[in-house]
Design a protein that fits this description.
Blueprint (H helix, E strand, L loop, with lengths): L19 E6 L9 H14 L4 E9 L3 E5 L2 E7 L15 H11 L3 E4 L4 H13 L3 E4 L16 H22 L4 E4 L2 H9 L5 E3 L17 H7 L9 E7 L6 H15 L2 E7 L3 H11 L4 E4 L5 H10 L2 E4 L8 H8 L4 E4 L3 H9 L2 E4 L4 H12 L4 H15 L2 H17 L1
Helix pairs in contact: 2-3, 6-9, 7-8, 7-12, 10-13
């Protein structure tokens, strides 16, 4: 359990619209996790630059502790690992969260995961008489859709599971003042399912770190990752090796892509599907594939994305997709499934193409066509222009804190 002698906040509860204290609660936060962790750390940087704003993080961890994350106070509460979802953990210490809320006195609570965290945070918010919002970061009911060619029994079972999942999402959504989403496609899914008070707040990218100028050092970057020198094309994926990323599609498509283009595939990340993916690739005889572990150095990732010729995001249930946006900001085109949040980025930017979701042969066709384009410089400019126009982090958090203030005013 969390011990009580924790320092009290050094600033008072905000009393005017320009000052605001938010407490973020999520189970999607670990040392090797991606999008939600990045979003929360970027929020910490934002509040550090804006007097009157402050942030407190409450996340599960292997042991209870209090630390500083980019200037925001972070409470880690000991919790067990979620089976098959390493490194994520379950947040279960409801009384500890009550004590943190009473001590930190936030103006609003934001919840960023769907399991135990919403119920614990709602209880604490009710006790403290403060509003709470839910950021719907993972569209898990859509991941239950039956694959093409599934048996009738499997389709029926998945239909029942999908119905139950959407019922659960509705039960959570109706208890929060707002449900936040990062893409229009996710907003449509929620509204079709009967979730009300849905607000779109797209996520962002560090425009200074992820920049096309890094392509000038592409030769050095390629050598550091064990990649071939230009003009041999490089296709990249950076992220977690989990079911919802649908990396099996990329593995199945890769032999045809490599045969037609001579490209090298670089897969950077970690996750429970890694062993199965490696075995599948070896069985298919996929050539020119390089695997690299999770990379925590953001500068290295930015160098890699600028040095790649194409980024592939095969998942069709993404609610947004930070890594694909970082690729676009770096001047690297993206190929994605034609459903989900990444498809919106690709279509709005014009910097890439989409393939029929779930179809490995169409993925291969589209990747081969993109690697054969002669207008890559123009496509790179389109991706960068789009990122600058719509996804700077300051723009994102200006919008988010406006939503908080609307909730507080109501």
């Amino acid at each position: 359990m969390l011990s009580d002698p924790i320092p009290s906040p050094s600033f008072p509860r905000c009393a005017c619209p320009s000052a605001l204290r938010v407490l973020d609660v999520t189970e999607w936060f670990g040392d090797t996790t991606g999008g939600v962790r990045r979003y929360l750390l970027e929020k910490a940087r934002y509040v550090a630059r804006h007097p009157g704003l402050s942030q407190v993080l409450v996340v599960p961890g292997p042991r209870s502790a209090v630390s500083d994350e980019m200037g925001s106070r972070c409470y880690r509460l000991q919790g067990p690992a979620i089976p098959t979802q390493a490194p994520y953990r379950i947040l279960y210490q409801a009384r500890a969260v009550d004590r943190i809320v009473a001590r930190e006195r936030p103006d609003i609570i934001e919840v960023g995961s769907p399991w135990a965290a919403p119920w614990i945070a709602l209880r604490s918010a009710r006790h403290a008489r403060i509003p709470a919002v839910w950021f719907y970061h993972g569209n898990f009911p859509t991941a239950l859709r039956p694959p093409a060619g599934a048996s009738a029994l499997s389709v029926r079972a998945r239909d029942v599971a999908t119905h139950a999942a959407w019922w659960y999402v509705r039960q959570i959504g109706r208890r929060f003042a707002r449900t936040l989403v990062a893409s229009e496609s996710t907003a449509r899914d929620l509204e079709r399912a009967g979730v009300e008070r849905v607000v779109r707040v797209p996520l962002g990218v560090d425009l200074e770190t992820f920049h096309p100028r890094r392509r000038a050092a592409a030769a050095t970057t390629r050598r550091s990752f064990g990649l071939p020198d230009a003009p041999a094309p490089v296709v990249a994926f950076v992220g977690r090796f989990v079911v919802e990323k649908e990396l099996e599609l990329l593995v199945d498509a890769w032999p045809a892509i490599a045969r037609e283009t001579g490209a090298t595939l670089l897969l950077v990340g970690a996750g429970p599907r890694e062993a199965a993916l490696r075995h599948r690739m070896a069985r298919l005889g996929g050539a020119r594939v390089i695997w690299r572990p999770f990379e925590s150095d953001r500068e290295r990732i930015a160098d890699l994305l600028a040095a790649a010729d194409l980024y592939v995001a095969p998942g069709s249930t993404e609610t947004f997709g930070l890594a694909p946006l970082e690729a676009l900001a770096s001047g690297t085109p993206v190929v994605s499934a034609d459903r989900g949040g990444v498809a919106e980025q690709v279509l709005r930017s014009g910097a890439g193409a989409v393939f029929a979701a779930g179809d490995a042969s169409d993925l291969a066709r589209v990747v081969i066509a993109q690697l054969s384009r002669g207008d890559r410089a123009a496509v790179a400019r389109q991706g960068r222009t789009y990122a600058e126009r719509e996804h700077g982090w300051d723009m994102v958090f200006d919008r988010l804190f406006d939503v908080y203030r609307e909730v507080l005013a109501a």
